[in-house]
Amino acid sequence: MTTQAREQVAGLPRQVWDRARLAAVNATGLLDTGPEQVFEDLSGLAARVTGSGRAFVTLVDGERSFWKACIGVDAPAIADRQNPVQESFCYFLIGLDGEPFVVEDAATDPRTRDHPSVGPMNIGAWAGYPLLAPGGEVLGSFCVIDDQPRTWSPADLTTLETLARSVGAEIRLRQSLAAAETAHSRSADLAHSLQQGLLPPTPPSVPGVEVAASFFPASRAGRSDIEVGGDFYDLFRTRGTAWGIALGDVCGKGVKAAQVSSMARYTIRAMAGENHTPADLLAHLNTAMLRQNAPRFLTAVYARFRTTPAGVAGTLALAGHPPALIRRADGTVREVGAAGRLLGVFDTCDLTDVRFRLGPGDLLLFYTDGATEARARPGAPGRNRNVFDDTDLAHTLSTTVGRSAQETIDHINDALAARHGGWASDDTALLALRVPTHRPI
User: Fold this and answer.
1) Assign residue 208 a region: left if phi > 0, alpha if psi is -120 to 50, beta otherwise?
2) DSSP state of 151
């Protein structure tokens, strides 16, 4: 856009034409591309949860706001999925450098009452969060529009913020994976970096509960390509005092497995606030995977729980995943969870919610199958050839009475290492919750 043209749209923030921002928008590769299921699904979820009717994923260059997804608007042609930058509320977000922009009555709000789109686009209320590039540049917005003025609830805004992060993560992951696939020289360090990006850096603190987790990638000695694994875990607050735990294992390795892993994790987070049971949530994830033609299937366990005066009470569901293990304070170990179908293959999953409770000294362990398939490297001399299986894991867990959650995770990893001798045949993710023996009153 020329200087003269910019003067005709005076009032727009200077950041709209920032060269680094425009380069970041172009680097997404999404401008002037057709609708894609992942962005349509996230936008549809935002419209449904907020009851707003319209939702958009937008990319904003120097001239227009391009709608990568538009729910509630009939715009089948790519040429119709955009409007001039000066007629879009998205430029407000660009000027805020990463902060949200929320309007409850567009016709009376002094920031928007003279905006040229309030009447023609029937904007009663508008709420949006920025989509951020890896360098922090604002690419565009994830926003919802209501025909009528309204007050956006804290739950509405939390949902939008979470979904905006999911859209941004999808865009960044695509860029990272595309760069990895086309790079001439690939390294194990890059694979490790991509893998760590799928995991929380450290589990958050849960009041009254010990939490510990670990992830070890499969050994890749002698392999020339990057082989990002598909194992993931997550622990997060859902609604009020409730917490969610997700742990999964995508079939295979490589960039497609990583993409499915990322999509699953962020979809679970986005839907966890809707008060679904674990079985219902995993069934919705299965539907999302089928709609997006996910290139890999997935086994997963999802649990939600609350702390209680007696310890922890929760519910979990399994989708083709190994059962969780409860180790009681007396050393007794039992499985928890009912077998269910894996995700991304069948139209229906037939999953079952199972309740659990933990008292003082009890521990709940979630794991991927790398923990029950440890064995010595083929051809290694003098090594135990037996596989470290379900029975070995349960026995090892039974010996951890009195140990903290972190000490328990460390003890299991030591037992696995003793069996495989430093050569891991598969990725291994572990996550443990423990109720302390002496809880604060």
Assistant:
1) left
2) P
